[in-house]
UniProtKB/TrEMBL annotation:
The lineage of its organism: Eukaryota, Metazoa, Chordata, Craniata, Vertebrata. Residues 50-174 form the PH domain. It comes from the Eukaryota. Transmembrane segments: none annotated. This is NIBL1 protein. Belongs to the Niban family. Residues 685-698 have a biased composition (Low complexity). Residues 610-732 are annotated as: Disordered. PANTHER family: NIBAN FAMILY MEMBER, PROTEIN NIBAN 2. Residues 637-660, 701-713 have a biased composition (Basic and acidic residues). It holds the Pfam family PH_Niban2.
Length: 732
């Protein structure tokens, strides 16, 4: 009922905004003059057939309350895919869990998690001395927390591993949060504007943390924001058991409701989009035929609204916004510019190191190996972490409350996505220019000088593009902070009077001109001049290496963009120097993975000792058994792993193949429960196809004894089952 009500109102807003967005798109296509031309090339398909990362991590299985070692793969779409073990991945068996991490937060301490869980169900807090909802066998947990969906619990053995996994997980969250395609020039703006209009109709202005994921996920968050308080007040008092059990039940209830809402929202939204698409040809024909009349009609409406609104808006800007613009801009500029400077530094260092290594180790023969790694630098979460961390300094002290900014995370993630894009543009431009030069080189010295010369050219282009991107980001962020504040301030005196302007719109053009949108454009114009001036002054003062708007690089490389239109460069194919006898599949396997395997380089124990968690091995003690209420120390866990490994190594190998098949008959097809139905795929991020999931040779090899785990056939379950730890868990 709640989903139907919310989606009904939203779809009405969407249909209205679709016509406006279509008009704006066609008008831009006819009249548009884009901004400054980018100097760097843009890669069309950055990670085709590549895996970001794969490695082993311990996961807590809620159903049997045990920790199990899982082989985690992060394909090019940044979904988290967990397999029983590495062998299951190599044999292309169905994964255990698929997770789209949009909307999740990465927590690195149980205390942080317990605080969030306690706040999610007020009045239900475990008493001191009672076991909490979660215990971790090491001091290095990694918890994926979501306000509505199920939670995921992982842990590793060392702090070094924890930091690296955290970088990988954060990259997944960052990418999945940005789930609405910017390539769509009509549907995307129509959707985001409809979300904004719906929330403003509920008196909710300002930024919204849960505008993350694909369209259906965002709509599900919109419904849950209203539904969850009602659900909590209805179901919360009826939960039975001790506090941890009630908390656990509440998380399961919330997750189940979230999944129901998701399916309902998807059906209604898809129907609304299909309806708009059906009307699109007729609407577009009208726009192209009557473009001049529509523009004239809109200008007439805007002039009337401007005369009514602008005097009030200018007073509001002068008293409540203008004094704070420079403070907001400075708060944004410092961490953002430091982040882009770090991107430049990391790129410079990687290319310089590659140059030295290629010259010292064999010239062109080694070039392919290093260029293959360099080409994916922007998608290496660990190497890029030093750039992303600069945005953690972003603080809008005192300004968040004034301007109703619930969180700075939306600005942090946007800047980080820009950083990654600029890094990839720089790398792609570098490799394109270098590839063009290779045919003219005469030995190592020529190669070294050419790499250095191209690096300097690319850095100049990076500085120009970086300035352009950052100035655009600052302007958008300032608007995103100030416009909702102004709309909220002006609403009591202006909002009620807007209805009288509706009669100024011709009925034939009512699908393309909305009073509410025109009103917002007028409010935007009232503050835009001050924002442009503030950013311009920062550039004139050369603050944070920003270029003046008047500084334009025209056709510095007239043929460069033609080079970027060519086929993708396959360095390993062209310059690896590998013998022809080597199978092509093996060469692909070597270059498959962006990040090398995360390992603990300091200890003798190999990471990922699955024997700790095998049913056939001695079960680790439950924390409460040995020392009630006290989880085992990391040294105890390590000792148990070593003991289990020692016992496993003494076993006879006759049952090995049976263990590796996880209890299935190699000649028999997998059980129905093990198969993943088409409907169970991720709504946004689906795992890479089987051909794209072959593991990299860089993956550390674990012995069969380490990967084997006993398992039993699970009975067939109904489609969509998500609770069984022995079956496939699908996640948003």
């Amino acid at each position: 009922e709640k989903t139907g009500k919310v989606l009904g109102e939203f779809c009405r807003c969407y249909r209205e905004q679709f016509g406006v967005a279509l008009f704006n798109s066609v008008r831009y296509e006819i009249e548009g003059t884009g901004g400054p031309q980018a100097q760097l090339l843009h890669r069309k398909v950055p990670l085709e057939d590549h895996v970001i990362y794969s490695g082993n991590i311990f996961q807590y299985i809620e159903e049997n309350k045990k920790w199990r070692n899982r082989f985690c793969v992060v394909p090019h779409n940044y979904g988290l895919v967990l397999y029983e073990n590495k062998l299951a991945y190599e044999r292309e068996l169905p994964p255990r869990v698929l997770v789209n991490s949009a909307g999740y937060k990465i927590l690195t301490s149980v205390e942080q998690y317990l605080e969030l869980v306690n706040n999610s169900l007020p009045g239900v807090t475990p008493k001191s001395g009672h076991s909490p909802i979660l215990k971790c066998p090491t001091d290095f947990p990694l918890i994926l927390w979501h306000p509505y969906a199920r939670h995921y619990y992982f842990c590793v053995m060392t702090g070094k591993e924890q930091e690296k996994w955290r970088a990988v997980f954060q990259d997944c969250v960052r990418h999945c949060n940005n789930g609405i395609s910017e390539d769509s020039k009509v549907e995307a703006p129509a959707f985001t504007d409809a979300i904004r209009m719906y929330r403003q109709s509920k008196e909710q202005y300002g930024t919204w943390d849960m505008l993350c994921g694909n369209e259906t996920q965002v709509l599900s968050n919109l419904v849950m924001e209203e539904l969850l308080p009602e659900l909590r007040s209805t179901i919360g008092p009826r939960l039975k058991g001790k506090a941890p059990e009630r908390q656990r039940t509440w998380i399961q209830v919330s997750d189940a409701v979230y999944r129901m809402v998701y399916e309902l929202a998807k059906a209604q939204y898809d129907a609304a989009v299909a309806g708009c698409e059906q009307e699109r040809p007729q609407l577009e024909s009208t726009i192209r035929t009557d473009m001049d009349q529509i523009i004239t009609s809109k200008e007439h409406l805007a002039s009337k609204i401007r005369a009514f609104v602008l005097p009030k808006a200018e007073v509001c800007v002068r008293n409540h916004v203008q004094p704070y613009i420079s403070s907001i801009l400075e708060a944004l500029m410092t961490p953002t510019s430091q982040g882009f400077a770090e991107v430049r530094e990391v790129f410079f260092k990687e290319v310089t190191d590659m140059n030295m290594n290629v010259v010292n180790e064999g010239g062109l023969e080694k070039l392919a190996e290093y260029m293959e790694k360099l080409s994916h630098l922007a998608f290496h979460p660990v190497k890029m972490q030093s750039c992303y961390e600069k945005m953690d300094q972003l603080k809008l002290e005192g300004l968040q409350q004034r301007f109703d900014v619930s969180s700075t995370s939306v600005f942090k993630q946007r800047a980080q996505i820009h950083m990654r894009q600029q890094m990839d543009d720089a790398v792609y431009t570098f490799e394109t220019l270098l590839h063009q030069e290779l045919g003219k080189l005469q030995g190592k010295d020529d190669l070294c000088n050419s790499i250095q010369r191209i690096l300097e050219r690319v850095l100049k282009k990076f500085d120009y593009d970086s300035s352009t991107v950052r100035k655009k980001f600052f302007r958008e962020a300032l608007l995103q902070i100030t416009i909702p504040f102004l709309l909220k301030k002006l609403a009591p005196t202006c909002k009620g009077e807007l209805a009288k302007f509706q009669e100024l719109i011709f009925e034939d053009f009512a699908s393309f001109i909305l009073v509410e949108n025109t009103y917002e454009e007028v409010v935007l114009q009232s503050v835009m001049k001050d924002i442009m001036q503030a950013v311009k002054e920062a550039a004139v003062q050369r603050k944070h290496n920003l270029y003046r708007d008047s500084m334009v690089m025209h056709n510095s490389d007239p043929n460069l963009h033609l080079l970027g239109e060519g086929l993708a460069i396959d360095w390993s194919e062209e310059y690896s120097g590998q013998p022809e006898a080597e199978p092509a599949a093996e060469r692909r396997r070597r270059a498959k993975q962006v990040v090398s395997v995360i390992q603990d380089d300091e200890g003798a124990l190999p990471y990922g000792a699955e024997a700790l968690l095998q049913p056939g091995s001695p079960e680790p003690r439950e924390p409460g058994e040995a020392r009630p209420g006290v989880p085992p120390s990391p040294s105890d866990a390590v000792k148990e792993i070593r003991e289990a490994l020692a016992q496993e190594s003494l076993r006879d190998g006759t049952g090995l193949e049976e263990r590796l098949l996880n209890g299935t008959d190699g000649s028999a097809p997998p059980s129905p429960r093990a198969d993943v139905p088409a409907e169970a795929k991720l709504p946004h991020a689906t795992p890479a196809p089987a051909g794209a999931q072959s593991p990299s040779a860089a993956c550390h090899q674990r012995s069969d004894n380490e990967t084997g785990e006993h398992g039993e056939h699970s009975p067939p379950q109904p489609r969509g089952t998500t609770e069984s730890g022995e079956g496939v868990q699908t996640e948003f």
